[in-house]
Specification:
Layout: E1 2-8, E2 13-19, E3 24-32, E4 40-44, E5 51-53, H1 60-72, E6 85-92, E7 103-104, H2 107-116, H3 124-137, E8 143-147, H4 157-160, H5 167-172, H6 181-195, E9 203-209, E10 213-219, E11 222-226, H7 249-255, H8 260-269, H9 272-277, H10 283-291, H11 295-319, E12 324-328, H12 329-334, H13 336-343, H14 355-358, E13 365-366, E14 375-378, H15 383-395
Parallel strand pairs: 1-6, 6-8, 9-12, 12-14
Antiparallel strand pairs: 1-2, 2-3, 3-4, 4-5, 7-8, 9-10, 10-11, 13-14
Helix pairs in contact: 1-3, 10-11, 11-13
This protein binds adenosine-5'-diphosphate.
């Protein structure tokens, strides 16, 4: 049974076709600059050369048409006909309070997704466009929506409520939702396997450290705290996002003449590692500059490591203990220096890294020393596989 996984951004579309009998990736690709000049789709299948389609793609549907033709192409295709696609799983950013698990898409689900769009104006409309386009092109194939927020619907009230007037919650649904749920769920399940324990008996902290970054406290398999909030702006310092700041800074900047829109752009696109270092939002560039003696680059990294560390400390308090800490996503999987810098100050948890194991990259493994009281792990995330698994289990 083959499952197509679709991840639609406002001008991009990522996809993977997986054979779920083996969980093997048959083909994957990325379309970029949809709706703007210079549209391009790069398609690849294991063991074959990449194929690049440089042609106008005015809509996501046009990009989907190209990718579906690529999947069945006699020379570089991987299936004979689109009938070999049994289901489509859609990465969907915001499910609000309506969805605490993945769902098969029907008209009622679409309506709820439209209602959630207000909470994720950059993401949900694009996700909906992808769902509708796939429904048109594959009218008999079931579609499943898998939400970034769903895993965090188990947060208790004291974790998800903001201490604003209660009406802000009832009127506008202002609360913490959290994101990266698909990734936190996937790596926590893998971590339990690696530790040889049941997830129901574990207290885990998952650190998804990429361009966007969030932490999640997972107690007995359930998310009970996470660092992103109503939107993905909250929590840690990120590539271009500021994370938590004193909210009074917003009206202060407005009083200095910035518009609300400008402050919003500043906090989302010009802050974080980019804003502090003045060099780049990419951790590799910033680590390189810091190694070359650039003080602001070093400060940007210090803030990042410090915030991850104090958030880990908070989550140990939230769970009254911790058995395992997981590093995942671009930086978490690859940067041994960042993992070391974060863990260096967690000695109170009895954490000791094994320097040889920690020098590994991108491989699922335990990186703490044998006598470390808390197990520290690197687990490469695989959101596409998680989406495909959920999709399969719902349409089977
Ligand atoms: P997203 O999916 O949020 O765009 P990723 O999970 O792909 O992000 O992570 C991207 C980040 O990971 C980039 O900032 C990149 O610099 C960082 N990264 C990737 N490889 C390394 C590495 N070897 N050392 C340090 N940082 C790395």
């Amino acid at each position: 049974m083959n499952v197509l996984v679709i991840n639609c951004g406002s001008s991009s579309l990522k996809y993977q076709l997986l054979d779920m009998s083996t969980e093997e990736v048959l083909a994957k690709g990325l379309a970029e600059r949809i709706g703007i000049e210079g549209s391009v789709l790069v398609h690849e299948a294991p063991g074959q050369e990449k194929v690049k389609f440089e042609q106008p793609m005015k809509t996501h549907k046009e990009a989907l048409n190209i990718l579906m033709a690529a999947l069945v192409d006699p020379s570089h295709g991987v299936i004979k006909s689109l009938n070999e696609i049994s289901a489509v799983g859609h990465r969907t950013v915001h499910g609000g309070e309506a969805f605490s698990a993945s769902v098969v898409v029907n008209d009622a689900v679409i309506k709820s997704l439209e209602e959630c769009s207000e909470l994720a104006p950059l993401h949900n409309p694009a996700n909906l466009i992808g769902i509708r386009a796939c429904q048109e092109l594959l009218p008999t194939v079931p579609m499943v929506a898998v939400f970034d927020t769903a895993f965090h619907q188990t947060l208790p009230g004291e974790a998800y409520m903001y201490p604003l007037p209660y009406e802000m919650y009832t009127k506008y649904k202002i609360r913490k939702y959290g994101f990266h749920g698909t990734s936190h769920k996937f790596v926590s399940a893998e971590a339990a396997g690696l530790m040889g324990k049941k997830i129901e008996n574990l207290k885990l902290i998952s650190c998804h450290l990429g361009n966007g970054a969030s932490l999640c406290a997972i107690k007995n398999g359930k998310s009970i705290e996470t660092s992103m909030g109503l939107t993905p702006l909250a929590g840690l310092e990120m590539g271009t996002r500021c994370g938590d700041i004193d909210p009074a800074i917003v009206p202060f900047l407005v009083s200095k003449g910035y518009t609300v829109q400008e402050v919003d752009t500043m906090m989302n696109k010009q802050s974080g590692v980019l804003g502090v270092s003045g060099i780049s939002s990419d951790f590799r560039d910033v680590e390189g500059a810091a190694n070359g003696g650039n003080k602001r680059a070093q400060l940007a990294l210090d803030i990042f490591h410090y915030r991850v560390r104090i958030t880990i400390g908070a989550y140990v308090a939230a769970m009254d203990g911790v058995d395992g800490i997981i590093f995942t996503a671009g930086l978490g999987e690859n940067s041994s220096t960042s993992r070391q810098a974060i863990c260096d100050h967690l000695k109170f948890l009895g954490i000791k890294l094994d320097p040889v194991a920690n020098s590994n990259r991108g491989k699922a493994m335990i990186i703490s020393a044998e006598d470390s009281k808390t197990t520290v792990m690197v687990i490469p995330t695989n959101e596409e596989l998680m989406i495909a698994r959920d999709t399969l289990s719902l349409v089977k």
